[in-house]
Design brief:
mainly alpha; 0% strand
Amino acid sequence: MTEKTPAPAASPAPSQRKTEPAAAPPPAFGPGRVAGATLIVLALVGVALLLIELTRFFMLVFAAIVLGAIFDAIASWLCARTRVARGIALALSVAGIVAIFAGAFMLFGSQLAREVDTIREQIPSALQGLEAFLNRYGLGAQVRDLAAVGSDDVSRIVQQAGGYALAAGSGIADFVLVLVAAIFLASDPATYRRGLLLMLPARAEETGSLALSDAGRGLKGWMMGQAVSSLVVAALTWAGLAALGVPAAGGLGLIAGLLDIIPMVGPIIAGIPAVLLAFTVSPMTALWTLLLFLAIQQLQGNFLQPMIQKQAVDVPPAVLLFAVVAAGILFGFLGVLLAAPLTVVVYVLVQRIYVKTLLGKDIKIAGKD
C-alpha cells in the first residue's frame, strides 16, 4: 500500500491575515522637544539681555564710525586737492579735528567759567525781574514755586558732584576710545567693509554693498551740511545776543551751535538759559531774545535743515523728532547726540533694503539729486 502524502495546508485568505499594528508616532511634546524648546527660549532671552547690556557699546561703535567717516572724507578731499599720500592726509585730518575739539573745549571751558560767575550773580535778579513781570498778570506764585524747585535741584546737583565727576572721567575715556577706533576705521575702510560683506549670504552681497555705499554718502552729506548749520547758528546767536546786550553772548552762541546737532530739541534747550539771562537786562530784552531764537529756529528749519537733507537724505522732520525722543529713552544722552546720523543711516538702509530690494520700488539715492 502506498501512503498518501498530506496535501499542503491552504494559506489563509488575505482578509484573514493578522496585520501587525503600525508603530505609534512619537509624542508631539515629548521631554526632548520640551527641553530643546526651553534651551532655545533661554538662549534668545540671554542674547536679548546681552544686547541690552551692550547698547552703550554699540553707540560707541557707531560714534567711531561717524568720526571715522569724517576723517575719511577730509583725507579723501586732501588727497584729491593736494595729491599727498593717504597716510599723510589722514594724519592731517586727525590733527585738524583734534585741534578743533581742543580749541572749542578751551574756549568753552573759559567761557563757561565766566558764565558760572555771571549766572551766580545775575540769576537771582533775573528771577526777581521775571517774578515782577509776571506779578502783573497774577503769576508770581508760580515763579516762586519754580525758584524753590530750582534751589532743591541745585542742592541735589552739588551733593552728586562726585558722581558727575566720575561720569565726566568716563566720558573722556570713551572719547579717547572712539577717537582711536575712528583712526583705525579711516586708515583702511575697505578692509572693514569687505569683512562685513563676507558675513552676508552671497545673494545679499550686492544689496549690502549698495546699502553701505548709500549709508556712507548719507553720513558724509549730513556731516557737511551740519557743520555749516552749526557755524551759522552759533554766529547768528552770538551776534544777536551781543546786539541785545545779553550777558555771556559768546558762550551762549557756542552752546547754541553745539546743540544744533540735536534736531528740533537742541535750539529749545539752548534758548532757555539765554532768555533767563536776558531778564537780567529787562523783560523786553528777554522778549527780543525769545524772538531771536524763534527767528533762528525758523531759519534753521526752513533753510539750513533742507540744505542738510539735500546733501544727505530727505528725512521727514517728524521722524527726526521721534528719533531723538526714542534715542534718548533707549541710549541716554549719547543716543540724543547721535540721533540725527543714526536716523540718516537707518532711513537709508530701510530705503535700500526694504523699499528697493524687497518691494521693488524706486528710491532717492542718498547724496544724489
